[in-house]
Amino acid sequence: MSEKKPYYITTPIYYPSGNPHIGHCYTTLACDVVARLKRMQGMDVMFLTGTDEHGQKIEDKAKEAGITPQQYVDDIVANFKRLWERLGISYDRFIRTTDPYHVESVQKIFETLYKKGYIYKGEYTGKYCKPCESFWTESQLVDGKCPDCGRDVVDASEEAYFLKLSQFAPQLEKLLTDEELNILEPKSRVNEMVNNFIKPGLQDLCVSRTSFKWGVPVTFDDKHVVYVWVDALSNYISALGYENSEYNEMDKYWPADMHVMAKEIVRFHSLIWPAMLMALDLPLPKKIVGHGWITFGGGKMSKSSGNVVDPFILTDRYGVDALRYHLLREMPFGADAPYTNEMMFNRINSDLANDLGNLVSRTVAMVIKYFGGTLPVEREADALDDELFSMLDALPAKVIADYETLHIADALEAIFKVIARANKYIDENAPWVLAKDEAKATRLATVLYNLLDAVRRCTILLSPVMPHTAPAIFEQIGAADDCTTLEAASIKGALKADVTVVKGPVLFPRIDVEKELAELEALSPKKEEKPEIALEPIKENCVFDDFMKLDIRAGKVISCEKVKKSDKLLCFQIDDGFGGRQILSGIAKYYEPEQLVGKTIAMIVNFPPRKMMGLESNGMILSAQTAEGGFRVVELGDNVMPGAQLS
After folding, report:
1. Rounded CA gap, 142 and 150, in Å?
2. How far apart are the C-alpha atoms of 28 and 235, rounded to whole Å?
3. Quick one: pLDDT at residue 598?
4. SS3 label, residue 601
5. CA–CA dist 555, 425 (Å, integer)
6. CA atoms of 325 and 327, how far apart (whole Å)
7. Which of 354, 378, 401, 501 has its CA 20 to 30 A from that of 264?
């Protein structure tokens, strides 16, 4: 027997400054789908996740709580592990940056980079963003704020070690833009890295701190601890045993097949991490994927904005696989995905209860009703079978390719198109009519067998997404283990000819949406009641030529900050496709500035410049009124390029 081919996939290591939420779930679920698929393909999978536990923020939070930093992270890490167990995450290794073997690796990596001349000692005088744990030069700030999150920075000056990141700019640009390498997906992330970070000039990176102690000590200079990104990013190789004695799997699994993360940390993974690997003479990862955010109420889901939906409550009430399916079904590749409980309930009712659950229960019930639960072996084909068979035959290759490239929503859409076709097949063949004619018993058995086999083939392909539901379906339709492998998804008629079905519980009970929304509302903190907002009356007619005078364009928000001495205004720096522009907008009451960074928005660009609070505004950002009386910016998809005209 030949040795299994290795496959290495990673999530980022999560920062345990607070308990996990749905935003953490998407990345981990997506990796879980790929890991499960690769195991079904017979590969030797290493699926890594973990926690990034050092830094000043943790030290401060522990002090506020009156406990040690280690106690603080231990409690929260336990909740991460509990959530991954609840969601059925099949990780192979969980790394913590406080693990002794990781500390050993980081210290040796730091020493190696120092001895090779890639790390040097200097004096850092600059701007520091505490929430991001990032140092910035004055030129990197956007309107005096952190370019990543838009928050205030503070002056900082301390002795520090630096990584010669600037030295790697040419190699990094080639790495990201070489079509053959194709290391970073989606392509919009490539443009962002090159245009926003490499071309303006990469700065050397501060990689040690002296102002706090909760970190990996620098072995040759005990005043310093290793700063966040050298510590955190090294986990991908320390977990395999690089420069430590815990494991010995670098040759087996490295380079990683896929690093997966949300888009806000793509910069660190596509610039700093490759530079570190080049300096260490190690191979580069094969693929880096930066997905969008799960958004809630228009903004990124985060602990600090108080809009986190508790995944423990949702899985308790609606089932693990329902939540897995919904989150993976709603996230288009590379784009953001809004989350509301109502959207999840409607998705459960339409896809899982009406389509999948109904198909299984109807088919099983008819086999029991018309044949006592066991089908006869004779068959009678008909042209009505052809389209369903054709769709089933084409499905595995499509789904596997989509899973492998994290186009998971596309894969699920394709599966449910076939499930919908199978439901239509029932109506076309009308088994209840065939059952009235004994001469058509063979055709009736054929129709029901085809339905059971269609369910089998679709369920195999759904199993990486819905690992808890798939075995229950296989049991109900009488599918033995030998016909539920990935290879069997491509085989027509793999079910036993005389298959026996078993009636089981309802897979996905329908949800009373209004009732559930009310019950979840009762579980949530009470909100201040607001008066109902009346819509503005429709304005009098205008002519098409009036509309054509407006130049409405797409723009990508590069930075956003509050305007000093103004409660209403936000100041945007926008990539408009023509060199950039500054626009002021009176929506500060409805957004934290960092929620808007990276979004593609709609704007009017041909208004004359206007001074507001001493700043020039060159256009107007379009927004819509919400039911609560607030305003939400009109957002466009990530695939809309800056400067594109709206019509």
Report:
1. 8
2. 16
3. 79
4. strand
5. 46
6. 6
7. 401
pLDDT of residue 307: 42
Backbone angle region of 362, left / alpha / beta, with phi > 0 → left and psi within -120 to 50 → alpha: alpha
Residues in CB range of 624: below 8 A, 6 or more apart: 631, 632, 634
Collect all residues with Cβ–Cβ distance below 8 Å to 579 and sequence separation of at least 6.
none
pLDDT at 593: 80
| Residue burial 497-512, b: 16+ Cβ < 10 Å; e: rest | eebebeeeeebbeebe
Distance (Å, rounded) from C-alpha 320 to C-alpha 318?
Answer: 7
- pTM of the entire predicted model: 0.79
pLDDT of the residue at 377: 97
Q: How many CB atoms lie within 10 A of CB 28?
A: 21
- Cα 392 to Cα 396: distance, rounded to the nearest angstrom: 8
Distance between CA atoms of residues 417 and 398, nearest Å = 12
Peptide bond into 255 cis (omega under 30): yes
Where residue 585 falls among pLDDT bands split at 50, 70, 90?
A: very high
Question: At 426, is the pLDDT very low, low, confident or very high (cuts 50, 70, 90)?
Answer: very high
Burial of 383 (0-12, 13-18, 19+ CB in 10 A): exposed
C-beta contacts of 564-567 below 8 A and 24+ residues apart? 564/613, 565/613, 566/613
**Secondary structure percentages of the chain, helix, strand, coil, to 5:** 45, 20, 40
Kindly write down the DSSP assignment for every residue of 303-315, as one continuous string: TTTT----HHHHH
Query: Where residue 530 falls among pLDDT bands split at 50, 70, 90?
Result: very low
CA–CA gap between residue 106 and residue 114 (Å, rounded): 12
pLDDT value of residue 413: 97
The torsion region of residue 243 among left (phi > 0), alpha (psi -120 to 50) and beta comes to left
End-to-end CA distance of the chain: 61
Beta bridge partners of 609: none
Average pLDDT, the chain: 90
Amino acid at 488: A
300, pLDDT greater than 60 = no
- 374-421, pLDDT tens digit by residue? 999 999 999 999 999 999 999 999 999 999 999 999 999 999 999 999
